[in-house]
Amino acid sequence: MARIKGVDLPNEKNIWIALTSIYGIGRNLSKDICTDAKVDMAKKAKDLTDDEIAALRSEIDKHLVEGDLRREVAMNIKNKMEINSYQGTRHKKGLPVRGQRTRTNARTRKGKPKTIANKKK
């Protein structure tokens, strides 16, 4: 089992798909990493040699992923909340940040609906 950046890659998946289990690596970046490391994208994660894993690690180290990326995103959100920007206030209130409607949807951000007495008339 290949372990890169503290993440165990799924064995039965092709390597370019398995790399997407690392936070910060999507499909396009995964393809770029595989081509730069000269690793066959159709190869399963369990079939990688130690040299290929080392090449993938060195390519991934060039990008901001996992803990460093999570920390940077959290710091950006915290900074917006401190300067009281519009997005920061939406983060504080637990509402959608990017202009989505809140009258009917937004249940993911707002949580379980709270029933208000005598609302319907």
What does this structure look like?
There is one protein chain. This protein is mainly alpha-helical and 121 residues long. The chain has two domains: 3-60, Orthogonal Bundle (Helicase, Ruva Protein, domain 3); 66-110, 30s ribosomal protein s13, domain 2. The protein has six helices and two strands; from the N terminus they run E-E-H-H-H-H-H-H. The protein has a two-stranded antiparallel ribbon with strand order 1-2. Helix 4 (66-82) crosses helix 5. The longest helix is centred in the middle third of the chain and has 17 residues, at 66-82. The radius of gyration is 21 Å and the shape is elongated.
CATH C-level category of the largest domain: Mainly Alpha
Order of helices and strands: EEHHHHHH
**Number of individual domains:** 2
Uncertain spans? none
CA-based shape: elongated
Topology at a glance:
Blueprint lengths: L2 E2 L2 E2 L6 H4 L8 H10 L13 H11 L5 H17 L3 H8 L13 H4 L11
Antiparallel strand pairs: 1-2
Helix pairs in contact: 4-5
Concise summary:
The protein is mainly alpha-helical. 45% of the residues lie in helices and 3% in strands.
Brief descriptors of the model:
45% helix, mainly alpha, 2 strands, 30s ribosomal protein s13, domain 2, 121 residues, 6 helices, two-stranded antiparallel sheet, Helicase, Ruva Protein, domain 3, single chain, 2 domains
